[in-house]
Amino acid sequence: MLETWLTKSLGIELPIIGAPMGGRAGGRLAGEVSKAGGLGMLGAARYATPEWIAEEVATARAAGGDVGIGLMTWSLDDDATLLDAALEYEPKLISLSFGDPAPYVARIHDAGIPVLAQVNTIDDLRVAERAGVDIIVAQGGEAGGHTGRVATLPLLQEILESTSLPVLAAGGVSTGRGLAAVLAAGGEGVLVGTILLASPETIGPDYARTRVLAAGSADTVYTPVFDQARHQPWPERWFGRALVNDFTDKFHGGGVVDDVIVDAYDPADPNVGVVYAGQAAGMVTSERAAGDVIRAMSAQAEQLLSALGAKVRNNGR
């Protein structure tokens, strides 16, 4: 049994949270992750609506699992409607990432809900600490979707050495080996996303699952071109890690004007549409139910940590 601060505080069985992936993590995925013993999160991206949140929360709970909701802080600064909707459905956890969560934390706490913040640098950590968040996620540059530039292992070590808050890791964690490594380092759990992208419970175009299955770990690029193509006003410090395709081959790093990129983008075309995925893509080799992925990860981590404990004890004799 992998009992940590995270499992005890959230009342879950496994120290695994399904990442709130915009456009991929809906109610079915979140529900199955939670049903397996972790906590699934909805990815309420900028284009989500209160109606979408209501439908997906209901779907997750019908699957037998509780749910968390992930929001983009920089987007709330323009319109906090999605936070209003999230609070209405009393999720087990709310994540506020990519910006200063300070204006929103007290309101979430007043509703009795803990707040998680993903950070990409020590400066981000200090902002999150001052805001009063409850959980820190060290999100490394290996992660899929929008992320920072520091790799997971250096960032995790730096964050663990620099805060008394409970810390999770995200970015490149795809097996029980990764989970065991994070727990052994002093983390309380992990946020996983890419390893779930071929699961049948994901939302989004069917080609997204196919392309992840065909990709290797070197087949990603850290790029702003998909934000430019879709008029997504992400702050410039965060690019998105996505699978390479014809669109990135043509436009990434090319200095092309936005109008050309917008006209060339077609989300229905598998060779052009965005598939955000991390460097763990090479570990996604078959279409597996999300619950099976989560349970297998936990079982392997428990076995490895047990073996490590026995090895340390034996070597100490």
UniProtKB/TrEMBL annotation:
- Its domain of life reads Bacteria
InterPro entries to which the protein is assigned, alphabetical:
Aldolase_TIM, NMO
GO MF term list: oxidoreductase activity
- The enzyme class is oxidoreductase
Q: Which Pfam families match?
A: NMO
Keywords for this protein: Flavoprotein, FMN, Oxidoreductase
Sorted alphabetically, which SUPFAM superfamilies does this protein's record hold? Answer: Inosine monophosphate dehydrogenase (IMPDH)
Among its keywords, does the record have Oxidoreductase?
yes
E.C. numbers:
1.13.12.-
Q: What is this protein called?
A: NAD(P)H-dependent flavin oxidoreductase
